[in-house]
Amino acid sequence: MTPLRLLGLAAAALLLLLTYLLIESAAPDATRHERILDTLRAATLNDAALQRDVLQARAGLLRNYDPLVRSVESLRGAAADLRRAGQIARGGMRAEIDREVAAVAAAVDEQAALVEQFKSRNAVLQNSLIFFMHVSGQFHPAGGDGDAVGREMGTLTNAMLRLTADPRGEAAAEVAASIERLAALPIQENGRGNIRNLTAHGRLIIATLPAVNDLVVRLLAAPTSERIRAAQKVYLDAHGRTVARANVVRVLLYGAAVLLAVYVAYLFVRLRANARALRDREMQLHQAQKLEAIGTLAGGIAHEFNNILGAILGHAEVALAPRPGAPPMRHHLEQIMKAGQRARRVVDQILTFSRRGDRRHRPIVAQTATSEAIELLRASLPATLSLRTMLRAPDARIHGDATQLEQVVMNLSTNAAHAMDGHGTIEIALDTIKAKADLLLSHGNLPAGRYVRVSVSDTGCGMDAPTMRRIFEPFFTTKAAGSGTGLGLATVHGIVAEHHGAINVKSAPGAGTIFEAYFPQTEAREGGEQRTGSMLPRGEGQTILLVDDERDLVLLGEEMLASLGFEPVGFDNGSAALGAFRADPHRFDLVLTDEVMPAMTGTELASAMHQLCPDLPIVLMTGYAGPVPIDRIRDSGIREVVRKPLLRLNRNGALAFYFDAFSSREPVSTPDQVRGRLSLENALDADRLKSSDSASIQSAPASTQSPEVPR
């Protein structure tokens, strides 16, 4: 038997026990108890009243027998009410109460029968006595024989009085003898009828009086009152035992409640301990999962960067190898640049996936960003693939980042192209939907509302259910080794989640795949346009103080700045740079410093220089090692933050903003090359800068920002 089943049986048994104790703890109903006692008292009183009325009726003091009838009916009603007395007890006690109540009912029935006999016979007796006394009182004989009759009549009357007063002894014989003597006397004709009736009633009285007296004796000796007292004794005894048992059961119930409370407290403590243990196990599991995810991430990054480094080192080795008559090295240098750009894209995808590549979200037209991504796709997709578009939301806006939306379209389309192995059709659709109920999607749920839906479908091989569950895991890929990073769909998922959206995936093996990305639609309008430049400005000899702890990067930066028309002064540590700056603060037109350096960080160096020369523009370079608080950046006098590695174009774009005089300009190749810059002014909230030196912080062309600027 399983522990759960045993626990269920124990709970059921405990419930039954508590129910039994609860029933047994109920004391007898006080109202019913008082009613039974009142019935017993009333029965006793009615029995005494019946005996009194019988004696009065025997003495001829009652006009009628209604009091007898009422007493008998009351006794019968009491006997009927007493049948409920046994409900206070069970078992033997109830049977004993029922027996006593039945004895009371039997005694009442017997007494009622005697009363009926008494009423009929006593009525005859009382009528005869009344007639006898009436005739004897009106008889007045005149002289002669009449005197003898009168004397005998007096004797008979006295004897009759003695008989009615005390029927015992010789009174009945005296009455009978007197009646016989009276009947033998000569009586006048006019009195003979009365004498005859008188003697007849006298004989009837002699015959009836003993029976009536016997009934009176039996009624007075009836056991009704004893039966009532016996029933009352048994009832009170049972009631007392029931109350005592209820009190004992209440104590037991209280004890059970205390034990149950203690057990519940024990269970509560155990549950808390188990909950803590479960939380500890969950933390251990999460830690193990984190370590596993970090291991997977590290392995994927190592694999990807090994390939990139292999390409860089290989082409660099070929370019450096002396070969007589070798062609120009431009091809190998271009491959090195491609490998570097690929490494930078991997870093961008990692940052986007980890949500640390914070961007400024603003209202954007979704169709514009989607169209730009489609134009890029048309140039990069193989000619064997067909691209169809259905853009039906020209004015729909979302609150987000246009570059990230383009990346969603590009990554989903690239994934679709890989799934079709060079042949098939990709369809990109954009529309709006109004959900009246919650949207239950394959990878997330959304509340009811208006959404912009970006859909990318393909006619490729499709996916099975296990693959669909893992497609958004970082570095999970079904491609051959070296054919992909496994970060494309994970980046898409991170971008959509950052925009408070969700993704729905429909696919089956051999039936193609449909990716649907849902973004909340907004009615807000874009506050302004981003500044973009089409020409690359050049410097006119401005002196730039360049500080980086990597000596090679200092030399490379000096060469780049010099080629752009600036006069660079480089240092590989902050202390030396600060010393040179203190020697001549007004020599430098701008400071370009790295953040993470030994001994002195970039913000510390900037703060020291800002105290010496508050109007000097300072630009901070960062490799995105962690966030730098805005307050520290503002207090350090830093005007802008740019991301490393810096190419020639975006380095000059960051510097040229602070100089007005530029003599020559070059065309800007692509806007992607300047998207790595982070504008400090866009990162700072306008309200936070009203009270400080916001006027000294210049705005700059940038596409990304964050409340906290990374180092």
The residue-averaged pLDDT reads 77
CATH superfamily (homologous) name of one domain? Response regulator
Q: What fraction, in percent, of the residue positions are helical?
A: 55-70%
Sum up the overall morphology in one term. Answer: rod-shaped
What is the CATH topology classification name of one domain? Rossmann fold
N→C terminal distance? 63 Å
Output the structural class: alpha/beta
* DSSP E strands, number: 19
Low-confidence parts lasting 5 or more residues at pLDDT below 50?
527-534, 660-711
Biggest sheet record: 7 strands, mixed
Beta-strand share of residues: 5-15%
Radius of gyration: 61 Å
CATH class of one domain: Alpha Beta
> Number of helix segments?
20
Query: Which CATH architecture of one domain?
Result: 3-Layer(aba) Sandwich
Offer a quick outline of the entry.
The chain has 711 residues and is an alpha/beta fold.
List the helices and strands and how they pair.
Blueprint: H1 3-24, H2 30-58, H3 66-81, H4 92-138, H5 145-165, H6 171-184, H7 189-220, H8 224-320, H9 330-353, E1 362-365, H10 366-380, E2 385-391, E3 397-400, H11 402-419, E4 424-435, E5 439-441, E6 444-446, E7 449-458, H12 465-470, H13 488-498, E8 502-507, E9 513-522, E10 535-537, E11 543-547, H14 551-563, E12 567-571, H15 574-583, E13 590-594, H16 602-612, E14 618-622, E15 627-628, H17 630-635, E16 638-643, H18 648-656, E17 665-667, E18 677-678, H19 680-683, H20 686-689, E19 709-710
Parallel strand pairs: 2-4, 11-12, 11-13, 13-14, 14-16
Antiparallel strand pairs: 1-3, 3-9, 4-7, 5-6, 7-9, 8-9, 10-17, 15-19, 16-18
Helix pairs in contact: 1-8, 2-3, 2-7, 2-8, 3-4, 4-7, 4-8, 5-6, 6-7, 8-9, 9-13, 10-11, 11-13, 15-16
